[in-house]
């Protein structure tokens, strides 16, 4: 790893810590510089804005998530399509629980894209966001989890493990919306073992995955 790469890693690690503690809006570049044991000028030399730094962390999270997804498929390479899809969904949930900041960043990125017509409405994006190279990098790889899941649903239709006659894209978006809702409520519960509505999180996780399994294997 070169000197520049090492400096960037140190800055990203420091920024992650600050964003996790106070959130993106409340985070200050001074705090990140202090955590990284660098001057604020040095932080701006490597990352020209707080938005660019946030996008860099988002890109790091997207890369890690994709790696986890590919590992899940490797672990389920001998299973049928339905089991592979459930494995991907469970991997996503586990990833979100282990790396809440990354999931928050990824969901923020999705919201920005949707709110700005896939980034084309300049009025809904800051100049720093539009100019961030990491924004484009994320855009290039953001659909990997979707493509992998749809591919496994199609595999399940061929091997007979996915009986639902609806389109793979429809099955995926239904599963995705359920998982996102689950994540938002469990995230709001913090480190508590139960949700805001006193439902045990582990019990709910198992139930959500069972619902997804039933959805895939149902002929409805």
Please describe the structure with a list of short key phrases separated by commas or semicolons.
mainly alpha; 220 residues; 76% helix; 0% strand; 11 helices
What does it look like?
This protein is an all-alpha fold and 220 residues long. The protein is built from eleven helices and no strands. The chain has helices spanning 3-26, 29-36, 40-46, 50-75, 81-98, 100-115, 127-131, 133-141, 144-159, 168-188, 201-217. Helix 1 (3-26) crosses helix 4 (50-75) and helix 9 packs across helix 10 (168-188).
How would you summarize this macromolecular structure in one to three sentences?
It is built from 11 helices and no strands. With 220 residues, the chain is mainly α.
Q: Helical percent range?
A: over 70%
Overall shape: it is elongated
- Counted by DSSP, the helix tally is 11
> What does the largest sheet look like?
none
Strand content is: under 5%
Rounded to the nearest angstrom, the distance between the terminal CA atoms is 53 Å
Q: Strand tally, please? A: 0
Written as H for each helix and E for each strand, in order along the chain, the element string is HHHHHHHHHHH
Low-pLDDT stretches are none
Class per helix and strand makeup:
mainly alpha
Overall pLDDT level: 88
Radius of gyration: 19 Å
